[in-house]
Amino acid sequence: MIDKIEVKASIATMGRGGAEVFIDGKLLPGVVSADVSTAVGFIPTVTVELRAREVFVDGELQVELADETAEVLRKLGWTAPGEIPGVRS
User: Fold this and answer.
1) Cβ contact 36:54 at 8 Å
2) Contact present, 81 and 67 (Cβ < 8 Å)
């Protein structure tokens, strides 16, 4: 399970399917899609799919891939870090 962090997020729709996503007031580049889910008594969750070219992180980062994506990558010869002996995921 991924630890969730609380941030201020806003989504500005631009009409005809376009939108910009802002996290803590900063434009999030490379957004492919954004989904918002909520339920009574819960903080809304924004799930963002990114087209990452370069990712810079100041701290720890956990990357998760959809099962279908991981399977395609494995067929192309990729090995997940947790599947390499001696490498901690």
Assistant:
1) no
2) no
The tens-digit pLDDT sequence of the chain (89 residues) is 345 567 788 888 887 777 888 888 888 888 888 888 889 998 888 888 878 766 677 777 677 777 877 787 888 788 877 766 665 54
Close Cβ partners of 61 (under 8 Å, ≥ 6 residues apart): 55
18-23 β-sheet, strand order = 9-15, 18-23, 26-27
pTM: 0.49
H or E segment and range at residue 68 = helix 67-75
In order, the DSSP letters of 22-36 are EETTEE-TTEEEEEE
CA distance 63 to 22: 20
As a whole number of Å, the end-to-end CA separation of the chain is 14
DSSP state of 77: T
